[in-house]
Amino acid sequence: MTKTKRVLTLFLRFLAIGATLAAVIVMVTSHDSSQVLNLTFTAKYSNEQAFKFFVIAEAIACGYSLILLLTFSQTSLWRLVLILDVVIAMLLSSSVSAAVAIAHVGKKGNTHAGWLPICGQVPKFCNHVTGALVAGFSAAIIYFLLIFSSLYSVQNTLFL
Amino acid sequence: MTKTKRVLTLFLRFLAIGATLAAVIVMVTSHDSSQVLNLTFTAKYSNEQAFKFFVIAEAIACGYSLILLLTFSQTSLWRLVLILDVVIAMLLSSSVSAAVAIAHVGKKGNTHAGWLPICGQVPKFCNHVTGALVAGFSAAIIYFLLIFSSLYSVQNTLFL
User: Fold this and answer.
1) I need a labelling partner for A69 at 20 to 30 A (CA). Which of A43, B15, B37, B81 fits?
2) Domains of chain B by start residue, with CATH
3) Interface predicted TM-score (ipTM)
4) Residues B84, A95, A113, CA angle at the centre, nearest 5°?
5) Are the Cβ atoms of B47 and A105 closer than 8 angstroms?
6) Short-list A56, A87, A73, CA closest to A9
7) Which residue does chain B place closest to A154, by CA atoms?
């Protein structure tokens, strides 16, 4: 692996840690409540399984990249790292999609199923969730770039 | 690539085509209706964005593997195929997760958001969707095995 490649990989790993950490923090701190017909309606991420899955997946990805940075010198493990990168990329893309699907129902509702949108009542919560989803989506893209970069450097040849 | 490896890859590609095709067919044919307070309530996959995304993603994966089988002899393209396999695996895992998130709300509802479960009214629809999700999840696993197998055969060495 050349020095430029190594620096690029390090940079992408730091970006991945930043994005996943931001996603976790922004999602966990999402909280809003409103009064509906004398009842207090509280919205928080832990009320929905998909958002909990999102937080767990982002935290795993963040921890994985942190551990990898500490053991970065062992380039002989590239194949195992590549496999784990694929697993994490699939985990991140699935967690973001699940959270987006629920957030979409929260924003637009689903008239066919009788599910009403809730973002009108708790806009602060919805904005936080949107921010977390953007960070999570960025993390999935960064992991894909890491895989692309690793595969590209397996042999120093261009795509045939 | 040895002959055994080639046969295994071919077998996995056929399995992937079968699983994705099954997922598309079972999801598209999911349909049920019931009478609620003199109103006919019809449930079909096209009423929900996540289920439409699921069908499109599974169809893309199915078409991709079909095209690949026709151009299978060109093993020099392995790097491009591996990158595309990763893209398809991420696409499949995200589409399955989005559909699972919505199906979970359909089955259990979400009392915090006031979303009621609908599976009690349209059990046939829910069973079809569950079948499609199992097929879709299997397809994502098969793609992961394809990536694992490809990476394993990049060089004929074990994990270091």
Assistant:
1) B81
2) 3-152 (1.20.140)
3) 0.88
4) 110
5) no
6) A73
7) B154
